[in-house]
Design goal:
Elements (H helix, E strand, L loop, with lengths): L6 H26 L5 E5 L2 E3 L1 H17 L4 E4 L19 H4 L15 E9 L1 H11 L29 E8 L2 E9 L14 E6 L3 E3 L12 E5 L5 H9 L4 E5 L2 H9 L5 E4 L6 H13 L3 E3 L20 E4 L3 H7 L2 H6 L4
Parallel strand pairs: 3-4, 9-10, 9-11
Antiparallel strand pairs: 1-2, 4-5, 5-6, 6-7, 7-8, 11-13, 12-13
């Protein structure tokens, strides 16, 4: 490879390693049992010590190596000195070996905006934590294929938890990293926990096996804990053969790219740009699409409002079908930005 890697490739390579560090922090806090939970706007909007430490780690690590990028994190944290053990200085050599798509090879740090959700699926994380401390790793059950079915424990919710780092240029999500800290948790003690997937427009997506829902089955994944009449009406309008209710925007996109669901439907405000930037980039890198309920793209410039006010509609294929099924009541209630 001639010359030094493009700035955006170095950023993605760092984000990959930084996301793994954040995932390790998320695991460590869970195992400690001291979650340090605070309610931000209510019982469905929580923040834990893991959210705070993971965001500090991600933002401080990336800022140190890329001082001119704009980083927008979910958590509003006081300015304070970050402990050195939270800083991750490594990068993925595998990513650096890849050739940067020509249209991004000349990008400068100051042109890039990074959207960070340090712990997507906090509600599920806290529920799983309560269960985790009532049994040992060896007692963790295998979860069934129906992830909407409650188990005797809530440990399957650990699958819902992700760390999200999205990279945007000119308002478009162009690259993203998703870490699943508890991937493989159901294999019990001794299993290697966690995985990291990433993707970039023009390059593809890596770290998972791309699959599609077989045949013409419509399997809709939607919110587990933020439902309302609009959400339910919109899901039903898709005429799904099956509905999977899981937590976390990152996790729902994983359902799409791994062939467990064919559409992610959330006809409500509530999702933010840090929830969707990284997952959208990975989905788009494999030919999928994420829009609002009107079929319009979201913008990820540094100065946009954080709320995805017109809901989320994401698919791997047949996006137009799902857009066409959105009820008028939903379109009227959720105005495009």
């Amino acid at each position: 490879m001639s010359g030094s890697p493009a700035v955006v490739m170095r950023l993605v390579a760092s984000a990959h390693t930084v996301a793994e560090k954040a995932g390790a922090i998320v695991r460590k806090v869970l195992h400690s049992g001291e979650l340090g939970i605070v309610e931000k706007t209510g019982a469905n909007d929580l923040q834990t010590l893991a959210d705070r430490l993971a965001q500090q780690s991600i933002c401080a690590s990336l800022s140190r190596h890329f001082p001119k990028i704009t980083i927008i994190g979910e958590e509003e944290l006081p300015a304070e000195e970050i402990k050195e053990d939270l800083i991750e200085g490594g990068h993925s050599e595998e990513i650096l070996q890849k050739t940067c798509p020509a249209e991004y090879s000349g990008l400068k740090e100051e042109e890039l905006v990074v959207w960070v959700d340090p712990l997507d699926g906090t509600k599920e994380y806290t529920e799983a934590s309560r269960c985790h401390h009532h049994q040992t790793e060896a007692q963790i059950p295998n979860k069934g294929s129906d992830t909407s079915r409650p188990h005797s424990t809530a440990l399957w919710l650990l699958d819902n938890v992700t760390v999200l780092i999205g990279i945007a240029y000119e308002g478009r999500a162009i690259a993203g990293v998703i870490n699943q800290p508890f991937y493989n948790y159901q294999l019990g003690a001794g299993a290697s926990l966690g995985r990291t997937m990433w993707g970039m427009l023009g390059l593809g997506a890596f770290g998972f096996q791309l699959q599609e829902v077989p045949g013409d089955r419509r399997i809709v994944t939607t919110t587990r804990s933020h439902s309302n009449k609009l959400v339910t009406d919109c899901v039903n309008a898709m005429e799904p053969h099956e509905v999977i209710k899981v937590g976390g925007a990152g996790n729902k996109i994983i359902q799409l790219v791994e062939g467990k669901a064919s559409a992610y439907v959330f006809a409500s405000p509530g999702c933010k740009k840090w929830d969707t930037c990284a997952p959208e980039a990975i989905l788009h890198a494999v030919g999928g699409k994420l829009t609002d309920m009107h079929g319009n793209a979201y913008c990820y410039n540094a100065n946009v409002k954080h709320m995805n006010s017109a809901g989320i509609l994401a698919t791997l294929r047949n996006h137009e079908y799902y857009v066409s099924r959105v009820p008028q009541s939903v379109l009227q209630a959720l105005k495009s930005d």
